[in-house]
């Protein structure tokens, strides 16, 4: 899964989320990409997306969710939050993806096909902020922070970034030099807590539903053939370079 969102200074969100699996990997376990993603597509980002469209690129099939000017509070899950606090955005949260979180049995974990799947499964998350990234535990490039969540890890995500562009910062500094502290307090220049976007549980739900689809497909194939499913290449969610 590939998520790339831009957090705007007016507390709206632009960007896209792609949820997809590799066609050949789905075929290897006797399923179609649509079967593997059926639950994930039904219960993920569709309600809040501006557009939802089929995705089929580079041998991957799935769904693209597009967001244009979506309000922050349209993102309403519970484990990760992006909060506007004055002139900063604060990111705090977790994306737990341990075997317990994914509801995998010891037998499934020991299966070679499952082990290969865990090695290749990927969730890429990128947030671009209006201004400078002050600190984060992800990879920072300009105003963008990227995290690569890993199966088997708790995956904590933190960041602090300016909600103001460079021009807005310069204008604010100029205004501060002219206005008195009392005037700034009276007008509430810096603002207050404006909004929260919560998305982490939605990502975890999609991951869990994809695994459930893969498990169901493998079970159907085993029932049809009367044999154990051989190790196969894992379904690899689309990385940033495929979105």
From TrEMBL:
Q: What residue ranges are annotated as transmembrane?
A: 189-212
Q: Does the keyword Transmembrane apply?
A: yes
Outline the extent of the LppM domain: 1-163
Q: Which InterPro entries did the record assign?
A: LppM
Sorted keywords for this record are: Membrane, Transmembrane, Transmembrane helix
- Looking at the record's lineage, which domain of life comes first? Bacteria
Comp. bias (Polar residues): 222-231
Keyword Membrane applies: yes
Region of interest (Disordered), ranges: 220-243
Q: What is this protein called?
A: LppM domain-containing protein
